[in-house]
Amino acid sequence: MVRHFLKDDDVTPAEQAAILRLAHELKKSPYSARPYAGPKTVALIFDKTSTRTRVSFSVGVSDLGGTPLIIDAQTSQMAGKESVADTARVLERQVAAIVWRTYAQAGLEEMAANSNVPVVNSLSDDYHPCQILADLMTVQEHRGDLKGLKLAYVGDAANNMANSYLIGGALAGMHVSVAAPAGYAPAAAMVSRAAEIAATTGGSVSVYVDPAEAILNADVVTTDTWISMGQEAEKAKRIADFAGYTIDESLMSQAKSDAIFLHCLPAYRGYEVSAGVIDGPQSVIWDEAENRLHAQKALLVWLNEQSN
Ligand code: CP
Ligand code: NVA
């Protein structure tokens, strides 16, 4: 049966741990796995802009012996012309996997339902699960075992990154706490799904309005842009609504003194994070950006193995 990765809990806690172990191995031995030798081709489709995802999946597929095929949806027949299902039926006969950055989660589900090769969500409006694998790998490098660590996310807690931290962090057995102003809290269904998972892994989920409360004694502090791709028209309103939610030196001091700071990037210094924090000694954002490569390679190897 083919396995897809459309959201963080498309894998079990044990499977997430196995993918992360493989990611560390591949970081040490980058060319030790060659599932795409041939070379087989992997389709990388982009409906939204990208730097890290485009580079890390391209390099990763090459490292795994394959050929990355970048498809800019706007210049393909996908942009409002051909159905997702028909696109899947064409691609599945020629590529080894389909990696897609898009808007609606429903599109990914339709692609997966019509594809007998793995489909990977490389960011949707609802989730960014590949980023969370890289983030968890980075936390392991700097803090060791994930179980029992407190991860605090401050900012737009209704966006794709927040959802993936809630679900992916809960799978890893972390204590995930988020803080957001009114109107930007995570959906109740997302919180209850994360809490249900956390109950099986020893983690927990907490939602606050006050960022200082969420960050208190955290091991990991993180945030994301206040204006996600597709929300550009709300820029002025969002900047006003998020006043007081910048992770600066004073907020960061609420966390443990050895806490690390993560940001999926791109970052907007002076908005969701101060330059002092993101460019300061607690920030591990460049390790995090590099780990996209290793974590995604592990994911592709694992999906390929599971799907054969
Ligand atoms: N973090 C992330 O996904 O970056 P890009 O948008 O540059 O791919
Ligand atoms: N929440 C951001 C993440 C960018 C990697 C967005 O969707 O634009």
Overview features:
single chain; 308 residues; alpha/beta; Rossmann fold; 2 domains; four-stranded parallel beta sheet; 9 strands; binds phosphoric acid mono(formamide)ester; EC 2.1.3.3; amino acid binding; ornithine carbamoyltransferase activity
What can you see in these coordinates?
- The structure is a single chain.
- By secondary structure, the protein is α/β, with parallel strands linked by helices.
- The chain has two domains: 11-126 and 291-304, Rossmann fold (3-Layer(aba) Sandwich); 130-286, Rossmann fold.
- It is built from twelve helices and nine strands.
- It has a five-stranded parallel β-sheet with strand order 7-6-5-8-9.
- Strand 5 (150-154), helix 6 (160-171) and strand 6 form a beta-alpha-beta unit.
- Helix 1 (13-28) packs across helix 12 (285-307), helix 2 (52-63) packs across helix 12 and helix 3 (84-91) packs across helix 4 (105-113).
- The longest helix has 23 residues, at 285-307.
- The protein is globular.
- The N and C termini lie close together (7 Å).
- The mean pLDDT is 98.
- Norvaline (NVA) binds at residues 123, 128, 159-161, 224-225, 228-229, 264.
CATH-defined topology of the largest domain: Rossmann fold
- Name of the CATH class of the largest domain: Alpha Beta
Number of domains: 2
Shape: globular
Strand order across the largest sheet: 7-6-5-8-9
Q: What is the terminal separation in angstroms?
A: 7 Å
The number of helical segments is 12
Give the radius of gyration.
19 Å
Strand content: 5-15%
Poorly predicted spans:
none
Number of DSSP strands?
Answer: 9
Largest sheet: 5 strands, parallel
Query: What structural class do the secondary elements suggest?
Result: alpha/beta
Q: What CATH architecture of the largest domain do you see?
A: 3-Layer(aba) Sandwich
SSE order, one letter for each helix or strand:
HEHEHEHEHEHEHEHEHHEHH
Proportion of helical residues: 40-55%
Mean pLDDT over the full residue set: 98
For this structure, what is the CATH homologous superfamily of the largest domain? Aspartate/ornithine carbamoyltransferase
Bound molecule kinds, no repeats: phosphoric acid mono(formamide)ester, norvaline
